[in-house]
Amino acid sequence: MSSPVPPDLSDRIAAATANAIRIAEITLPPDVLERIVAASEDETSPVARRELMHILENIRLADERQAPICQDTGIPVIYLTLPPQIPFSSEIVDAVRKGVREATVTIPLRPNLVDPITRHNTGTNTSADMPAVHILPGDRMQVTVLPKGAGSENVSRLKMFTPTEKDRIPEFIVETALLAGGRPCPPIILGVGIGGTFDGAASLAKEALLEPLDQMTPEEMEICQKVNDLGIGPMGLGGKTTCLGVKIKSAGCHTASLPVAVNIQCWAARRATVEVPLS
Amino acid sequence: MTSPDSIDLKTPLGDEVLSLHAGDLVTLTGNVYTARDEAHLRMKTDGIPFDPKGAVIYHCGPVVQNNKIVVAGPTTSARMNPLTGFVLDAGVKGLIGKGGMSPEVRDQLKDRAVYFAFTGGCANLAAARMDLQGVFFEDLGMAEAIWQIRLDHLPLVVAMDAHGGDLFAAVEKSAHEVFQRAYPTCTGTRR
């Protein structure tokens, strides 16, 4: 029987969560910003250039106004690393959700969380089971927040391939961007999960979105180029920049299956990590 | 921010919008009304709570605090595809959103109205050029209520014009052709 989480640790977890959400919502990570700046210098069409200038001006204004970058402040996807001396408990999840409720009021965030069928809005961005808190082992206690908007989430896809279809994975990824068109607010980032199980592939795809964009493998760069060749452009209005980056994560899977998930992320690729002081 | 070659428009819009073409850069000044799925459904049953003649509907669910617009970027317009005919019939002359709308809406716009695209996610750029004027159907909640907002030169692009011109459709068609050439044997899902 582990000792209960001390109340002051609960408060620190809540504060760190709210702080991570604030940073993520207001400031774009430097690797993402760098890609958008590079794209704006590369575009030649007046419409595409203007769209990217709007995005850069918006990022500057978010910082100046200390307001969220986008009004779809998303549903926070939360990853928590726990060091060996902190046992996992429901109180830790409660503390994270308390931080989400605080951030909803103080930043403020748009209340996005509803019952899936009645569509009743809880008003707090939390419910008995949301947001999901993914626990990972670590040497320090850290909370990572990825606020996920609906526009890009809604056009994400998962396919259970047969093992002999592995060569068709790149075209599935590119096709996902094609079918999404302008709807996920391009330029987009593609998080790809290959392998695992049905649910595991989706988790891998989401985790891939946490990876920095300044390092891409030749395979990731080739898929990125193929997506850019489509010419969908910023906001689907045409142009050279459809995709800022592709990140692939893979895991072992059943010999008879090959799950592939593509999680689309809009240009507002918000993520932040904050350490929770243990004492 | 405003391009020197953009056309300045003011609400209520008149027949000047009929001469716009897909790809034209414009700015919009004056009152607009936010409306998403729920607001459209309510307007359909209870009536449009503002004067629709020459009005502009903005597909947007803003964050509002203390009677001020905190952030207010566009939402995906395609969700309003089946809910747009009646507002155009009532005299609405402009729609603002992101991602474009269906071929049915493109037909409904003909000789009547235009669809403007505003950069998705640019909620601060929008809010910096907005003044909150009032609200209708507030019981629908912050994101779904109709907010009356005065715009000051919001930069937009004409994405669907009153002659059947459609920037999104043209880009999409070309993207499909590129994809088909890159993966000629692909048998995946097609829209």
TrEMBL record, chain A:
UniProt entry keywords in alphabetical sequence: 4Fe-4S, Iron, Iron-sulfur, Lyase, Metal-binding
Designated name of the protein: Fumarate hydratase
Q: What is the lineage of its organism?
A: Archaea, Methanobacteriati, Methanobacteriota, Stenosarchaea group, Methanomicrobia
Task: Say which species the protein is native to.
Answer: Methanospirillum lacunae
NCBIfam families per the UniProt record, alphabetical: PRK06246.1, ttdA_fumA_fumB
GO-annotated molecular function:
4 iron, 4 sulfur cluster binding; lyase activity; metal ion binding
Q: Does the keyword Metal-binding apply?
A: yes
Read off the Pfam families from this record.
Answer: Fumerase (PF05681)
Q: Supply the InterPro entries for this chain.
A: Class-I_Fumarase/Tartrate_DH, Fe-S_hydro-lyase_TtdA-typ_cat
Give the Fe-S hydro-lyase tartrate dehydratase alpha-type catalytic domain ranges. Answer: 16-274
Q: Could you say which protein family the record assigns here?
A: Belongs to the class-I fumarase family.
UniProtKB/TrEMBL annotation, chain B:
Query: What SUPFAM superfamilies would the database entry show?
Result: FumA C-terminal domain-like (SSF117457)
Sorted UniProt keywords: Lyase
Show the Pfam families listed in the entry. Answer: Fumerase_C
* Molecular function in Gene Ontology: fumarate hydratase activity
All copies of domain Fe-S hydro-lyase tartrate dehydratase beta-type catalytic, residue ranges = 6-170
User: What Enzyme Commission number does this protein have?
Assistant: 4.2.1.2
Write down the NCBIfam families for this protein, in alphabetical order: ttdB_fumA_fumB
The UniProt entry's sequence similarity note says: Belongs to the class-I fumarase family.
The molecule here is called Fumarate hydratase
Lineage of origin: Archaea, Methanobacteriati, Methanobacteriota, Stenosarchaea group, Methanomicrobia
